[in-house]
Design a protein that fits this description.
Layout: H1 2-23, H2 38-47, H3 72-80, E1 86-90, E2 95-98, E3 109-117, E4 127-136, E5 142-146, H4 150-184
Antiparallel strand pairs: 1-2, 2-3, 3-4, 4-5
Helix pairs in contact: 3-4
């Protein structure tokens, strides 16, 4: 009796999984959005960063990420927020989230900051900075509010300024390296 119930339950789960996966359609199922020729599809996948190469290959347009330390916006964000403990720092996901932080002056208030990267380019619309305040009363009931106004704009400006400085320093290092290598030849 119990084995029959388990068998029916297992059959129901498998049926549900099959039906729900079919509802989403096949991956890449819209033929109007895919080139009909295999070589064209391969080229499009590589351009979109979906391809991969064995043994290194051509690393251009393969969807590979540089080290986080080479991204000026990422470095500038971490340097700007280095006084706060981090709850999440995901380079490939493009987000940095701090833990709740209080400077000790106000016992019942703390702040949390999130930085979301929309682009690797150093420009004003490349990141979104959000600032959240938590105010707890003596009964430990807390109210969390999004106050991403002036402070988030100041943080974004500071991050962009540092990133531009890092980029300029990196370019001057590369230029010196290039000149030095040219003199060796």
């Amino acid at each position: 009796m119990l084995s029959k119930i388990l068998r029916n339950l297992l059959a129901s789960i498998v049926t549900f999984a099959v039906v729900s996966s079919c509802a989403n359609g096949l991956p890449g199922g819209d033929a109007r959005k895919r080139p009909p020729q295999v070589k064209d599809r391969i080229q499009k996948n590589i351009e979109e960063g979906r391809g991969f190469r064995l043994m290194g290959g051509n690393k251009r347009n393969t969807g590979e990420f540089d080290f986080a330390s080479s991204n000026e916006l990422w470095r500038a964000s971490l340097d700007t927020l280095d006084f706060m403990p981090l709850a999440l720092a995901n380079y490939s996901g493009g987000i940095v989230v701090t833990d709740w932080y209080s400077d000790g002056k106000a016992n019942n208030e703390s702040v949390k900051i999130s930085v979301r990267f929309l682009s690797n380019e150093i420009r004003a619309d490349a990141l979104v900075v959000k600032v959240f305040y938590k105010n707890c009363s003596t009964e430990q009931t807390c109210k969390i509010t999004d106050k991403s106004g002036v402070l988030s704009e100041e943080l974004a400006k500071k991050i962009l300024t540092k990133a531009a400085l890092y980029e300029k320093q990196g370019q001057s290092k590369n230029k010196k390296k290039y000149i030095n290598e040219g003199l060796k030849d």
